[in-house]
UniProtKB/TrEMBL annotation, chains A, B:
Protein name: LacI family transcriptional regulator
Pfam families: LacI (PF00356), Peripla_BP_3 (PF13377)
Domain (HTH lacI-type): residue spans on this chain: 5-59
Keyword Lipid biosynthesis: no
Matches recorded under InterPro entries: HTH_LacI, LacI/GalR-like_sensor, Lambda_DNA-bd_dom_sf, Peripla_BP_I
Keyword Transcription applies: yes
SUPFAM superfamilies per the UniProt record, alphabetical: lambda repressor-like DNA-binding domains, Periplasmic binding protein-like I
SMART domains: HTH_LACI (SM00354)
UniProtKB keywords: DNA-binding, Transcription, Transcription regulation
Length: 335, 335
DNA sequence: TTGTACGCGTTATCAC
DNA sequence: GTGATAACGCGTACAA
């Protein structure tokens, strides 16, 4: 097992000092061009590559950013991460990506691990399985900058990057109303998390603006999974009078509801119009294809990374959240 | 800016030596239970957490695994990663996830960076934009274990975790034949990568077995993106006699082709039957929904991680590739 | 059971 | 422009 070359090995071979090697490889102006060339050639020859562990330890900086999302296999998050990565890698930063699976407990662990790895900053979309956010305090203890994205958080100092969930929910609901819906149910998310509460508010505000009553049973909370959507579809079909519109806080529930409704021989959008939320790619391919809200995840990732990097570089960032452009995507299901 | 506590700080507070603190926090049996309790309490009080950088440098082990995939936002890869993460985190390992965007050049950079970060091992699905694999040599130089998944690689020593692309392609083609297709085109991938060449072979073998001729123009190579699928659909419609079946090496091209064919008022599966590959979730929701091949990405991730961890722990792994179970998913488009 | 001393590989700081 | 030395924070062989 041959040992990896270090700057000392290179130095020894060339009969010079390790610090010169270090400087040369960092392209410091304080090393003669000729020596630099010599050192670089030797480094290449010996297959040297810098040990980032040691370097980071010494410099007290890792050029690494920790990212925590509920689940990387969801389109929204994987695309947001791609957006972050684009910016981060441009500036020589690497991402460590972790999944909380929406468990606060796991999130706490991950934060601890990432801090122990001396990440220079964090980007988090917080878990929504509870309202205890005390574990975030550790980030402040470590004085690391943090950006929260998609799901707002105000328990500790940190910038928020969001879309205007309220406005889009309002507009989506209003769109259904304008197409003639009068009895619109809302598939709401559960958990103490901003995105869902804002969407409920937007829905209620739109209904109120148009003088439409909202029955209590119309606000149906669930985890918005496939089965939840089907279940809610059956439930709403048993209501009398039957609702004529659905505004769902995500696409999955909306799509599975459509399937269930059509199985019960209802027509979409003729009998019931449906509006989703998230802009999942699937929404383009369903039949009828689904109206939804494009959350612009890539741009959100870009912005989150830009802001975090600014903070890492010592810039002051205004407290007010950064709002990412988002927009309705009108398709057949709400027409 | 208050400094973070180190083992020395804890030691000083308790008037003991730093090494005792180090041992206590590692739960070494060589420290009295009472001292341990004392130290742990103090550590908690001071908000101590171990500096992994220093620890890893000293131990020459990072408990970190580097993962390189073309694109994490693709369902297959994000699910495979989820599968890896499940196993890795069980054993106290973290993943650093990187995207090559199918660029060999970027892949080479990433490998260099990951090695410099002293990862304990690598899992790679190699980029397919060329046939130069010399950059992989660096992994051998560093004597790090590596597992290739999905896309086979034999240029350096390393285990492969794959599905049987040949067999599934054979079966999918045969399925189309059994449903009556006689003129089946193949949407093939391009690039020097095993998955696509195996799928072509499987297709050809099935055609040959049933005595069906394969015209040269029927093997249509492309990057299999949305536009490629549409383009190939138009092209095949201009063929005389018109093909009556499509076996596509991925789902995206198959789905966009279906859209184009239906736009041209052809019926699927009546006029043309279609079989995809990959098991993208979208395939469930299209109409008609798409027959495809479930690649079992989560299990593939599990296996890849298990095997790599064994290697990291010094176990010898047999050279022969690990083949993951995969299966056809029969739906309307091929019926 | 605890303390001493040193090394992991790099970089900052001072000297020349 | 280069060399010597210490320090980053931790872990461990050896001594006590």
């Amino acid at each position: 097992m041959k040992k990896k070359a270090t700057i000392h090995d290179i130095a020894k071979e060339l009969n010079i000092n390790a610090s010169t090697v270090s400087r040369a490889l960092a392209d410091s102006p304080r090393v003669k061009a000729k020596t630099k060339d010599l050192i670089r050639a030797k480094a290449l020859e010996m297959g040297y590559s810098r040990n980032h562990l040691a370097s980071n330890l010494r410099r007290r900086k890792t050029s690494t950013i920790g990212v925590i999302v509920p689940n990387i296999s969801r389109f929204f998050f994987s695309t947001a991460i791609a957006g972050m990565e684009a910016i981060a890698s441009q500036q020589g930063y690497n991402l460590i990506i972790c999944q909380s699976h929406d468990s606060t407990e796991r999130e706490a662990q991950l934060i601890e691990t990432l801090l122990a790895h001396q990440v220079d900053g964090l980007m988090i979309s917080i878990a929504m399985d509870g309202d205890d956010r005390s574990h975030l305090q550790r980030i402040e203890d470590y004085e690391k900058p943090v950006v929260f994205f998609d799901r707002a958080c105000h328990t500790i100092k940190g910038h928020n990057v969001l879309i205007d969930d309220y406005a889009r929910a309002f507009e989506a609901t209003e769109q259904l109303i304008q197409k003639g819906c009068k009895r619109i149910v809302h598939f709401a998310g559960q958990g103490d998390v901003s995105i869902y509460s804002e969407r409920i508010k937007g829905y209620l505000a739109a209904m109120a603006k148009h003088g439409l009553e909202v029955k209590e049973e119309w606000i149906m909370k669930s985890r918005l999974k496939k089965l939840d959507g089907e279940e809610m579809a059956w439930k709403l079909m048993s209501m009398n009078p039957r609702p004529d519109g659905i505004f769902s806080a995500n696409d999955i529930a909306a799509i599975s509801a459509i399937d269930a409704l059509r199985e019960a021989t209802l027509s979409i959008p003729e009998d019931i119009k449906v509006f989703g939320f998230s802009g999942e790619p699937i929404s383009m391919f369903t039949s009828p294809n689904l109206s939804t809200v494009d959350q612009n995840p890539e741009l959100m990732g870009n912005k989150a990374a830009e802001i975090l990097l600014k903070q890492i570089n010592g810039e002051e960032i205004p407290d007010s959240p950064t709002v990412i452009e988002s927009k309705l995507v009108l398709r057949q299901s709400s027409n």
